[in-house]
Amino acid sequence: MDAAHPPHPAAHPLPTREIEDRWQRYWAEHGTFRARDDGARPRRYLLTMFPYPSGDLHMGHAEVFALEDVVARYWRLRGYDVLNPIGWDSFGLPAENAAIRRGENPAVFTETNIATQAATAHRYGVSFDWSRRLETHRPEYYRWTQWLFLRLLERGLAYRATAPVNWCPADQTVLANEQVVGGRCERCGAAVVQRELTQWFVRVTAYADRLLDDMDALEGAWPARVLTMQRNWIGRSTGARVRFAVVPDGGPRATASASPGAGSRPDHVEVFTTRPDTLPGATFVAVAPDGSLAAALCAPEHAEALARHREAALASGEIERTNAQRPSTGTFLGTWVRHPVTGERLPVWAADHVLPGYGTGAVMGVPAHDDRDARFAAAYGLPVGSGETWPGVEDAITRLEADGAGERATSYRLRDWLVSRQRYWGAPVPVVHCPGCGVVPVPDDELPVRLPDLAGDDLLPRGRSPLASPAADAWRRVPCPRCGAAAERDPDTLDTFVDSSWYFLRYCSLGDGTPDDVPFRPEDARRWMPAAQYVGGVEHAILHLLYSRFVTKFLHDEGWVDVVEPFATLLNQGQVRSGGRAMSKSLGNGVDLGEQLDRHGADAVRLAMVYAGPPEDDVDWADVDAGAVRRFCARVLRLADGVGPVPGPGESGPGARDAVVPGSRAHALRRATHRTVHEAQDLLDRSRFNVVVARVMELVTAARRASEDGPAAGEDAGAHAAAVREAVEAVVVLLSLFAPHTAEEAWHRLGREASVADASWPVVDPGLLAADEVEAAVQVDGKVRARVRVPADVDERALEDLALATTGVARATAGREVVRVVVRAPHVVNVVTRAAAS
Ligand code: ANZ
Ligand code: ZN
């Protein structure tokens, strides 16, 4: 080492890997972060959206974990018994696709990545209770995912149906609507096509009203935009169904055989409308070209046109079809209906803005009141009709019901949850198809239905599940559990949203004595649920939360849980970006957390993440200066080293107020300390974590200055030292939420025992919170006319009001006009006047 540049003093090293290792070992050895669950403290359950193991943890995880750990550590210090578990959402496509490329089983990739992520999470120093870890791909977990499916099946809430589904030709599997972005597969970008397939669905629509209504209790506790997204997704509309009788001689019909469905032409068309009051203005009826109604109503000579229209409609996604700006296309079906009020004949059209799965799949066209209908009428030469309406929707419904022409009705945007996937790496659907008995559930005591060991090319998607291929014959062929005849297992696997719809319940029962006869113990869930806070990305604002809410309600109905809502509050963190763009592996600007830990250390990354801005805001990692926060951590360690010894039992501690003279340096520092702690509480309760960091930095500066300056002449040196220690201890306790290793080390150097994680939150002395008073000068046209005493943090408005109320101002402005009041809080108010206009 160069003599001209002395090494960093050994007593003041930067927070190092060695420090981090030491404290991580300490926490592990002492079980510091295990939930006690012994009733000695009030319980709080903090839940983090569990990671998908696709490589190392990335900076998105770094952000969530840093944020959630602030909360976990804060609650612990406030005296709660905190449950803060961790697991992996470890089934899913990326592992399967990697396994095909590598010629291995997806478990290899999955478990390697879990090991990497777990090691990184440990190095990051998150206060997880590692004894409660779970992984959804393990048979001891997915056994219960299958159990859940069977309970739904038992209640008629899981069913099989043939439906048009989004099919990704590249991934060779169905996609949920929201996995289709701009007509393409969200994962691989391939253009999505529509296919008719028999699939498994879960009847979430049966819970639509409860899913909506129970959200009232989440108001203010969940981000408003998430509640709005959930509400829109469920999309409840109230209105009426109105029946239009089909005119029997509505047109010459060819032989029934020429047109499928024509033989069973319905005698009426039922529409769903939210505006039954506009019925007088209806001039046509439109049905979805791709629904069964269109086929049934279509006259044979229009069948060909309808078939073409149907193909086109299927090819354009739902989002596109419901875009109000896009012109709709129509096909006349050669059928007429009777207007229930006027008796007029109205034509029936297929129009692709009408969706088959919403309402009744049919609408009444009211061009006089609806823009879309107006454009459709203009495009196809249909009459605009009258603008007349009935007095109100309620009246209209009463009238319809009296006439027998319709009735009150509710429609939902929400569709049933498509849960089957034609891929391997998921929980097998636990049923057997028997030629005699049909669908037969696998008996509970035969669960789990384990995945057979397939690898590499055997996993290649070929338009059906790999479990349907010859490679899985031995696995698939089983006797029917009911009659013993030769039968076959269902070859599909469950959507990973099923795995994650209940994992938070299992956490409640993990640890010592994990049960193997139930998915979780109801009494454990009773103690911990609902999770007091759920932390995770807004990308899960709709589906994951909806399905978790649904499953909680279902298990409530089944007597397994008391609560009807799983997550009392929700915190959505912003995105981590890099150079202005979303960070992602596919864009090649993804950053692994492990690598950042090597470079900066855990505390610097954590602190930088939290300090970068409010949790909801996006963070641009390229703008974050981890080096600066690292130097800050070093400053705190130096500060701790400079603090005098721990006061002995008989000596006056920092709480001894008598020794601190108001106006002394010690007093000023004590006030800063107590106000910082007080403010931090409020900020933490409102998730303003970045502001807390800023306040801690300010307190560090104040403590350092006080420590360097020492007491003023004539001030009590003992009281001063005590105030410095109090400030530094408060700094360390607060810092332990953000940079726990540095805080532990500082706590240790302060001579405190054991772990700062076991310390308690500093008690605030209300006597030290009152603001200082200052004197403000009140001028009128530049001349001081009054003085008022105000709190140092007075706001401008209050100061202005006070100033204008003084007699000095009243006298000086008498007979003049006040044109302007300039306020410089807290010191000066200047009132500008001019001669009053007479
Ligand atoms: C006549 C009418 C007149 C309508 C008017 C609206 C305004 P929300 O609020 O989204 O529920 N509709 C009904 N079923 C449909 C389907 N399957 N596909 C597309 N559109 C459908 O919208 C309900 C309204 O959307 C219904 O009320 C219907 O048009 C249309 F001045 O009926 B309305
Ligand atoms: Zn059978």
Automatic annotation (TrEMBL):
ATP binds at residue 585. InterPro entries: aa-tRNA-synth_I_CS (IPR001412), aa-tRNA-synth_Ia (IPR002300), Leu-tRNA-ligase (IPR002302), Leu_tRNA-synth_edit (IPR025709), M/V/L/I-tRNA-synth_anticd-bd (IPR013155), Rossmann-like_a/b/a_fold (IPR014729), tRNAsynth_Ia_anticodon-bd (IPR009080), Val/Leu/Ile-tRNA-synth_edit (IPR009008). One of its GO terms (molecular function) is aminoacyl-tRNA deacylase activity. Its main location: cytoplasm. It is found in: Cytoplasm. One of its GO terms (biological process) is leucyl-tRNA aminoacylation. Pfam families: Anticodon_1, tRNA-synt_1, tRNA-synt_1_2. A motif ('KMSKS' region) lies at residues 582-586. Residues 669-796 form the Methionyl/Valyl/Leucyl/Isoleucyl-tRNA synthetase anticodon-binding domain. Its EC number is 6.1.1.4. It comes from the Bacteria. Keywords: Aminoacyl-tRNA synthetase, ATP-binding, Cytoplasm, Ligase, Nucleotide-binding, Protein biosynthesis. Residues 23-217, 415-617 form the Aminoacyl-tRNA synthetase class Ia domain. One of its GO terms (cellular component) is cytoplasm. Residues 231-384 form the Leucyl-tRNA synthetase editing domain. A motif ('HIGH' region) lies at residues 51-61. It catalyses: tRNA(Leu) + L-leucine + ATP = L-leucyl-tRNA(Leu) + AMP + diphosphate. Belongs to the class-I aminoacyl-tRNA synthetase family. This is Leucine--tRNA ligase. It comes from Cellulosimicrobium funkei.
